Task: structure prediction
Amino acid sequence: MNLKNHYKLGSVLLLILSTISTMGFIFRGESEKLLIQSSIDEVEVLKQKLSNFTLNDGEEYKLINSALKKNYTISFSGKIIDFDTLVIGKGDNRYLSSFIIINRDSIIFNRITRGNKQTSIKHDLKLTNNLGIDIERSLKSTVVTIINEGDTLKIDSDFTGMNSPFVRSSGSTIQVNNFEFKTAEYDADVFIFGDSYVNCASPERWPYYIYNQDLTFLCDGLPGGKSNDAYDFMVSAFSVHKPQYAIWCLGMNDGSDEQEANPKWKSYVQKVVDLCERNNVTLILSTVPTVPSRNHEAKNKIVRQSGYRYIDFDKAISDGKGNWNEGLLAKDGVHPSRLGAEAMANAFIKDFPEIKNYK
Result:
């Protein structure tokens, strides 16, 4: 099967971000400057919604790219011309990617963690004429609804999803009415981008304590995510809505510092600075907690001397050299414990008290 990726139908906005800069940050406290030269980037910004197209055998369509894991719905509707297999999901090969395979007699749920967790159920759907699929994700659970020829299946699932929603045909032809990623997350005026530390569902992650105060913000955290991943998510998010604040919480997975901060991390921080300035969004940086296996002291020096506001997570939980305060580091030696997450949440509110205005 020759799989074809269809982006043109979605009117992909190809952003050629050709900002070439040798200025870097402007340091207000010292005369030191961070010299960075940014290369040309191409970021594909996909739509939230596609309508009125034919999905043929071997074709795939994708929607907007993000690491959103809560409070969204993926909707698909169309008329079946021929049917063999249809795959619909959010992400393919990243941690927490989830997808559903529908064939003539089974529905197969797939969720990627450290392996591919797969659950299969039999169905009696006719799979002719009109087909509707809704994947409704809340904070910690998902309900999948499939409607076909008067039959309705509602299935509880551990579908989480990561990166772009997609739909793919193998041996099927469907005249698609609507394929859409719906979420109110993009309506927020505070956008937070991060890695596995940025998660609202776990009490061992600091956003949990902000979210449970009924405060409103976009929470875009990719487990294992690096700065280049989050930058792509930021560009996509800004195409939907330009918030008042963007909070950048990346660096843990961008390499351990030696004598100086990781060059790729520095490059992407500069890109984020430029992107926020172009879109009139107030950028707030954050320090990266040093852990026993990863040194981030040079990154944190840059953040503290940048002249930009920042959340000092590192100071809130450690001495800055990888020695965390007692009871704040989880047994894995990388992530915070519940007490550590609470300390980080307190630092967030202390350094960014404006969040209390967004209920």
Remarks:
- DSSP finds six helices and 20 strands in the chain.
